[in-house]
Amino acid sequence: MTTPAATIASPVVSGTTALPPSSSGSTADATNALASQQIAGNFQSFLQLLTTQLQNQNPLDPLDTNQFTQQLVEFAGVQQQLNTNSQLMTLISLQQTAQSTQALTFVGKTAVVKGDTAALTNSSATWDLNVPTNSTLNISIANSSGQTVFTGKYAANAGNNQPFTWNGQGNDGTKWPDGQYKLTATATDGSGNSVGVTTEVQGVVSSVDLTQSPPLLTIAGQTYTVNQIQSITN
């Protein structure tokens, strides 16, 4: 479907979505370290109390064997908790290293991600639409300030990865500057029922921020996590 301002062409690829909240790796490390110190402190206190109890027990009335065995079991449990915590921290560290290594391999490649925000560059911005059934599409495009700059209605056939390209021209003929633009797509079928349409965008991974956990990839001025990538096209 074609208008002077936008087109939906044959399928090409899929991808973009809003960035979910990310946690800081340094904060997680600090929390784990504090927890380990607390467990270690409790362990040392327990050991000191047990040793003192054995040293000062009444020879004529020694500690009950069952009670002593129970305390030894508790002692072993604390030690096991310390070992488990240390091993978990090692696994987390290995996972973070693997995520960083994987993220670095994406730099310079074209990635497809779920989302609705694309970059208008040289009067061209493209989104990929996934339309589950033949529908009438209502397209609305807004700039980074939330101002609607273009609307349109199109007939669309069912299919995934259908490119929708906008040339940066508003309904009133205004040529909008390069920047980030958000597309909203709604649809209805022949019976007037709502149809769920999803959008994706693609772009070159220009950089990776390894200071975040998980690492953040920059694509067309937006940041995404590795698990938001749907595919790599080259």
Task: Lay out the secondary structure.
Elements: E1 6-8, H1 25-55, H2 65-104, E2 110-114, E3 117-120, E4 125-131, E5 135-142, E6 148-156, E7 159-166, E8 179-188, E9 194-195, E10 198-209, E11 216-219, E12 222-225, E13 229-232
Helix pairs in contact: 1-2
Summarize the entry for a quick read.
With 234 residues, the protein is an alpha+beta fold. It has helices spanning 25-55, 65-104, and strands at residues 6-8, 110-114, 117-120, 125-131, 135-142, 148-156, 159-166, 179-188, 194-195, 198-209, 216-219, 222-225, 229-232.
Give an account of the 3D structure.
The chain is of the alpha+beta class and 234 residues long. It has 2 helices and 13 strands. Strands 1, 2, 4, 7, 10, 11, 12 and 13 form an 8-stranded antiparallel β-sheet that branches. The protein is elongated, with a radius of gyration of 29 Å.
